[in-house]
Amino acid sequence: MDRLIDLLPELWAATAETLYMVTVSLVLGGFGGLVLGVALYATRAGSLFPNRAVFGTLNVIVNTVRPIPFVILLTALQPLARSVGIPGIGTNFGVFVISIASLFAISRIVEQNLLTVRPGVIEAARAAGASRSRILFRLIPRESLGPLILGYTFIVVALVDMTAMAGAVAAGGLGDFAIVYGFKQFNPWVTWAAVVVIIIIVQGVQFVGNALARRVLRR
C-alpha cells in the first residue's frame, strides 16, 4: 500500500495518458469511421446510392481489418508507424494503432445504426420531394442519432480497453502503469488501483452516453 502512495503521481500521469489516447483516437477514428460507415450504408444494394463495386470493396476492407485481434495489430503496425515517423512505443504509437482499429469498428457500428431508420421514413421524404443527398446527410442522421450515441459510447469504452492492451508494448497509459509497477513488481495494490481508475472512467462515459441517448430518444 505504501508503494502505491509513492506511485500516485505516476498513476495520475498514466490516467492523463489514457484519456489523451482515448480522446485523440476517438476524434480521428470516429470521424474516419463515420465517413466509412455512411459510405457503406449509402452504397449497399437498395440504399440511396447503390454501387455494388464500391460497397463490395469497402466491405472486404472492413471485414479484413476489423477481426484482427488488437494485440496482434499493435505489433503488425509498428513498421508502418515507424515509416511515417511515429516511434513504435509511446502514446503517439498507441493513438496511431487505436485510431486505425477504431475506424473500422466504428464504420460497422455506424452502418448498422443507420440501417435502423425505417424505410417508410425514407419513402415519405422521397415522396415529399427531398433529394437523396438531403435524406442521407440530414434526415437519416437525425433519425438514427440516439442509436449512434449509444454506439459511440460503446466504442469509447472499447477504446479504454485498447489503451490498456497497448500498455503491453510500452504505449503508456494505465495498462503500461499496471504492467510496469504492478505485474512486474508483484504489487497487486498498484494493479488494482489502475483497474479502479479504468472502471471509474468507463462508468462515467457510460453514464454520459446513456443520458444523452435518453434525451435524444425522448424528442
Automatic annotation (TrEMBL):
Keywords: Cell membrane, Membrane, Transmembrane, Transmembrane helix, Transport. It is found in: Cell membrane. This is ABC transporter permease subunit. Belongs to the binding-protein-dependent transport system permease family. Pfam families: BPD_transp_1. Residues 15-209 form the ABC transmembrane type-1 domain. InterPro entries: AA_ABC_Transporter_Permease (IPR051322), MetI-like (IPR000515), MetI-like_sf (IPR035906). The chain crosses the membrane at residues 20-42, 54-77, 89-110, 148-169, 189-213. Signal peptide: none annotated. The keyword Ribonucleoprotein does not apply. It comes from Microbacterium gallinarum. It is a multi-pass membrane protein. It comes from the Bacteria. Its main location: membrane. PROSITE patterns: ABC_TM1 (PS50928).
